[in-house]
Write a structure and sequence with these properties.
- By secondary structure, the protein is α/β, with parallel strands linked by helices.
- The chain has two domains: about 5-40 and about 280-380, Aspartate Aminotransferase, domain 1 (Alpha-Beta Complex); about 40-280, 3-Layer(aba) Sandwich (Aspartate Aminotransferase, domain 2).
- The protein is about 40% helix and about 15% strand.
- The protein contains 13 helices and 15 strands.
- It has helices spanning about 5, 10-20, 40-50, 65-75, 90-105, 120-125, 145-155, 175-190, 250-260, 265-280, 280-305, 330-340, 370-380; strands at about 25-30, 85-90, 110-115, 130-135, 135-140, 140-145, 160-165, 190-195, 225-230, 240-245, 310, 320-325, 340-345, 345, 355-360.
- The strands form four sheets. Strands 2-10-9-8-7-3-4 form a seven-stranded mixed β-sheet, sandwiched between helices. It has a four-stranded antiparallel β-sheet with strand order 11-12-15-14. It has a two-stranded parallel sheet with strand order 1-13.
- A hairpin with a 2-residue loop joins strand 5 (about 135-140) and strand 6.
- The longest helix has 24 residues, at about 280-305.
- The N and C termini lie far apart (about 50 Å).
- The mean pLDDT is about 95.
- The structure holds pyridoxal-5'-phosphate.
- Pyridoxal-5'-phosphate binds near residues 117, 164 and 168.
Length: about 375
């Protein structure tokens, strides 16, 4: 085995989940998904497809109908994107890996804004590239970008800038002016931007349908790849369906990479994706309303606990917080599981920068469970 692979860290979130085995009464808020199943109108489309015998290989870049539907969906939110610039992928994480395969190899430098979901920074490492981490800074409990530090870190030596906003785990969101500065800077240094915007719809700013996207400001030929997923906006985590928006120059190569990775996304899953997009205007605002209710149930209760440092996130589906005196997040998360029946993700899973913090996924069909979870935390802390 390549030494590099042998040395990859295991998932600290799984470590906490494993600690729960044998403990019956655990409220799990550790993974990044809702406990609400995919809506029936999406599931039905997949069932119909299977009934119709759509069990064969599909085009590398996705069903033409799905690429067209994605083009219309994206165009409704951002600047128009031609269907030929879209590649359908087998999940968001697959989209990100494909982007990295196309853009970073041994000896290349990737700058990543962190803390971040660990898969993003593991992918370039797997491919032999080096990752330079630029940390968000905590200001009054909220994680914020140090734009000057980021622009300093991205030089002509930087092949890829990796940025996830709205951010998992911190909820930090890129603002338009920051995006403009980053895009202008990367045009000068010749750096590719890989933007993970899978949480763009999970955005709570009143009057906004989605978070600011690089797709609002970039030209088709910019060195920009945007990775997306059906997982979060359509409750489709288990389906493994995503997409990439690419400059025209990268599309043919991406078709080849998909051929060598998965060959195509399954047709019946793509049919479900088509149904999801057809129902998006009706479904997504309702989902975001429910998630907002979850956020607004959890955050005031967490904020009210003495010794808890937390900011209300504008995007994403996580409360990211720390408890005074608890500096070892993995040990703390394990104790919370085994002694309090509360399942949270340790900050250390997202990088050393987030040590001491905990991530609580508030996406739940039953916000009462969030209140129950806070009660467990409160009594564990003796408050
Ligand atoms: C920041 C971020 N990007 C990408 C993904 C990938 O989502 P999926 O592979 O389920 O499409 C996730 C999932 O948690 C995520 O948090």
């Amino acid at each position: 085995m390549r030494q590099l692979i042998d040395q990859l860290p295991g998932s600290k979130i799984r470590e906490v989940a494993n600690a729960a085995l044998g403990h019956g009464d655990v409220l799990p808020f550790w993974f990044g998904e809702s406990d609400e199943a995919t809506p029936a109108f999406i599931r039905d489309a997949a069932v119909r497809s299977l009934h119709d015998g759509e069990t064969f290989y599909a085009h590398n870049l996705g069903l033409p109908a799905l690429r067209e539907a994605l083009s219309a969906y994206i165009g409704g939110l951002h600047r128009p994107v031609h269907a030929q610039r879209i590649a359908v992928t087998s999940s968001g994480v697959n989209a990100l890996m494909l982007a990295m395969q196309a853009l970073a190899g041994p000896g290349d430098e990737v700058v990543a804004v962190v803390p971040v979901w660990p898969n993003l920074t593991a992918q370039p490492v797997i491919l032999g590239a080096s990752v330079r981490r630029v940390s968000l800074k905590v200001v009054r409990g909220a994680w914020q970008l140090d734009l000057a530090a980021l622009l300093d870190a991205v030089t002509t030596e930087t092949n890829v800038l990796l940025v996830n906003a709205p951010n998992n785990p911190t909820g930090w969101t890129l603002m338009r002016a920051e995006q403009q500065a980053i895009l202008a800077h990367c045009r000068r240094t010749g750096t590719w931007i890989v933007a993970d915007e899978v949480y763009e719809r999970v955005y709570f700013k009143p009057g906004e349908r989605c978070a600011p996207s690089f797709l609002d400001i970039a030209e088709p030929d910019d060195r920009l790849v945007v990775a997306h997923s059906f997982s979060k906006s359509f409750l489709m985590t288990g389906w493994r369906l995503g997409w990439l928006v690419l400059p025209p120059s990268l599309v043919e190569a991406m078709g080849k990479l998909i051929e060598f990775n998965t060959s195509c996304a399954p047709t019946f899953v793509q049919r479900a994706g088509l149904a999801a997009l057809a129902g998006a205007a009706e479904f997504v605002p309702g989902l975001i309303g429910r998630l907002r209710h979850c956020r607004d149930t959890l955050l005031p209760q967490l904020t009210a606990l003495p010794g808890v440092q937390v900011a209300t996130p504008e995007g994403g589906m996580y409360a990211f917080f720390r408890v005074e005196g608890q500096d070892d997040s993995l040990a703390f998360a394990k104790r919370l599981v085994t002694e309090a029946g509360l399942g949270l993700a340790p900050g250390a899973a997202f990088g050393a920068e987030a040590e001491g913090w905990l991530r609580w996924c508030f996406a739940s069909n039953d916000p009462g469970r969030l209140t129950q979870g806070v009660e467990r935390l409160r009594s564990f802390l003796g408050l």
